[in-house]
Amino acid sequence: MYFKDNDLKQLNDDYLKSLDHDQVTQTAINLLQDLKITRERLNQNSTNSSRPPSSGVPWESSTGHTPADEDLDAEVEQLPECDQEKEAEEKPSSSNDKSDKEGTEDSSVKKRLPGRQPGSKGYGRTQKLPVDSTVTHRAETCKGCGGHLGESASFIGTTGHYIIDIVVPSDGQRGLIAIQTKHVYGETTCPCGYKTGTLPYTSEFDDNWNVKLTEWRLVGPRLVSLICFLAMRMRLSRSKIREFLFEWLGLSLSVGTINQCIHEAGRSVEPLEEELLDELRNSSLKHADETSWLEHSKKRWLWVFLSSMTVLYVIGSRSAKVVKAVLGDTVFGWLMTDGYSSYRQYENRLRCWAHLIRKAKGLSESLDESASDFGKKTLEIFEKLMESIYRAREGPELEDLFILNKNLLTELFNLCQDFQNYSHSKASALAFEILNDWEAIFRVLDHPELPLTNNEAERLLRHWVIARRISYGTRNNQGSRAFTLLASVIETCRRRGIPTWLYLANVIEKRRKGETAPSLSEQEQSPQKQAA
Length: 532
What we know:
Elements: H1 5-10, H2 13-17, H3 21-42, H4 81-90, H5 95-104, E1 133-137, E2 154-167, E3 177-189, E4 195-197, H6 221-233, H7 238-249, H8 255-268, H9 272-281, E5 285-295, E6 298-306, E7 311-316, H10 320-327, E8 334-337, E9 349-351, H11 353-364, H12 369-394, H13 401-404, H14 406-419, H15 425-436, H16 438-442, H17 455-471, H18 477-496, H19 500-512, H20 527-531
Parallel strand pairs: 1-3, 5-8, 8-9
Antiparallel strand pairs: 2-3, 3-4, 5-6, 6-7
Helix pairs in contact: 6-8, 6-19, 7-8, 8-18, 11-12, 11-15, 12-14, 14-15
């Protein structure tokens, strides 16, 4: 843009009248150029630029135009200035009063944090549910003499707790049933006189988590898995999950308990991350993409890395360090990405054509005649190259596509060289981008079996972009960690056809007992996936 906001404020009738003919002409040319650039920006949508589909206004169709009226020059009615002033006078202003009140407050008094305050009196559960069954945890071996303790040994219960869980319907049954189980722990007396006690397992403290893995929980593994399903796949807030459980299962759980369940599930699946990372690095074809994320109003980035059978999510900064931490110093196989510079550290990289085609389509609609011609020619060349690649995929033998399309590539190269310093910013940017990523873009001509787009990664981000718009991201580092771990395991299970939620419940149950999480590679596919 030639004119900035401060420049436009200086352009008034008196100033324009003071200019001579040549000066007025030059000013008009500059204004016309700015007008065209502004109109091109207004006409951008998800089909002709890198804007995501969700950025469009609700009344626009998928083409980016309003269904009833495509004229963007419709006038917008506004209140007259006098009415605006009158409305401002009538509306009471409390900002000054508020600031005065805040000024009189003692600055040494700390702001009250939300939730229960440290040291305050707690409250127990008010909901009383019937006990469906009782499980007695008896010691099997005497810690004194090492002898076996049978059922006849004397047992005295000393402590216990309740677990609310759901019963997964078996064949011929429908619906979920909530049950409550009473777990009793105590001392078993050996004939030698030694009393051996039992207690629920509790993990050691972890600096990275403020939630422990323990059997001493109110919510059972399968119910935790259901809560994770509602939060991750249905994108429900903690309060909406609480409402769902109360209305459909008759369970009253606090928002804090629900949040604790999700974080506990995240810590339970944490050991699986190394397995996912190893499988991802050893895959022959990987995709990577990123989108913005919020962590307690801080700008972060949600990354996705995937192969044909593995998905890994990471929340961090938008830097090459994150990419290197996941993929390592070198990449085995191929890496499909967009044009972000952090990916350029890897030589065996593929470049997504969809981004370039959208930008070329946007240029073809430009009001600048030369820029429009450049966009149309670039779009035409890419379409011809795609037809050649598709024919090569279907043919019995792979042809040398570089030789076959030598004239098209030469034409595109010369076009980009001519426009890389052109006055139209979008045209010059596209020309420079193609020249800068030339090898990565057209490497697919040597390997036509490889994908042309990064749509696989973009699809796996779309669900979480919607979740971000609903929830405004995560609140802290632990929430982000639990989110990415669960998202990675869930999407990997879905990709492999593993019964996701039964597997997650199994992992939580094992980890609560201090056992190793079952490996993903050892899981069997669901019957529906096998039939498909």
